[in-house]
Amino acid sequence: MDIDINDKEFGLFQRLIYNESGINLTPAKKELLKSRLMKRLRGRSLTSFKEYYQYVTEEDTTGEELVSMLDCISTNLTEFFREAAHFDYLSEKVLPVVMENKRKKQEKKIRIWCAGCSTGEEPYSIAIILAECIERLCDLDIKILATDLSTRVLKKATQGRYSKDRLKGIPLQILNTYFEKETCNFKEHYQIKDFLRNMIVFRRLNLTDATFPFKGQFDFIFCRNVMIYFDKQTQTELVNKFYKHLASDGHLFIGHSESLASTDSKFRYVQPTVYQK
Ligand SMILES: C[S@@+](CC[C@H](N)C(=O)[O-])C[C@H]1O[C@@H](n2cnc3c(N)ncnc32)[C@H](O)[C@@H]1O
């Protein structure tokens, strides 16, 4: 049975989703919203979007349905070494300077934040670059904080297990060094090795929260292909929070179709999609 969503119902969800996640659904996304939420309605045997809205906002006092609803709404497209130029920039320009500064200050701590990490390909790519560039990883205290709004993607990310088709184009040397090959029901899977997985902490975090619970500052931040779903005001607020939580001279990497040009921030432009505090 198909259930239609009228403009009034769409407006209710539009506001709820904006308030809870910053995701800005334009009227053109009405059919997308409908198709993504349909299985939530069916799962609860509900016959209208109005009933589902009431369930999410009033009847479900646990807040769990809201989390599941946001899981359905978010777009989680990602891949290993997506936007490869960023990883070259990281290994050639950022890491040598970070390492030299740490050496001078005799500091062992390196802190990285991957915000909007989806199913984990991005933070694992960062971890691989660190492992490739830093000779004695074990002498350092490296942590990558990888956060997302969606609990569904975080579960997958924490497992660190990917089917062969997710790893297309990754050089064999990288596969052999950082993944364990497993065969199950004639299908090949690749499991991220523990030493790499242990560098990453996965957490649920909403980037539209007014404040973030971090004490220290990050050496660099990746937040790519997330702000594209936010309006200008939400983008500006987020970018200013990134600024606050970055160490001086720390870099911010954003997605290929994003820019800080129209946000009001103190970041210095380095090159398209790369900024510095
Ligand atoms: C398109 S994916 C980008 C993944 C990865 N950064 C990349 O570029 O490959 C966008 C991610 O942002 C997350 N996201 C959307 N709104 C968010 C919010 N308010 N707080 C945290 N994460 C959010 C989504 O759940 C999704 O996993």
User: Multimeric state of these chains?
Assistant: single chain
- The average pLDDT score comes to 95
Q: Give the strand order, joined by hyphens, for the main sheet.
A: 6-2-1-7-8-10-9
- The DSSP helix count reads 10
CATH superfamily descriptor of the largest domain: Vaccinia Virus protein VP39
Distance between the termini: 53 Å
**CATH topology annotation of the largest domain:** Rossmann fold
Structural class: alpha/beta
Question: Could you characterize what this model shows?
Answer:
- This protein is an alpha/beta fold and 277 residues long.
- The chain folds into two domains: 67 residues, Chemotaxis receptor methyltransferase CheR, N-terminal domain (Chemotaxis Receptor Methyltransferase Cher, domain 1), CATH 1.10.155.10; 164 residues, Rossmann fold (3-Layer(aba) Sandwich).
- The chain contains ten helices and ten strands.
- Helix 10 links the parallel strand 7 and strand 8.
- Helix 5 packs across helix 6.
- The longest helix has 22 residues.
- The mean pLDDT is 95.
- S-adenosylmethionine binds next to loops.
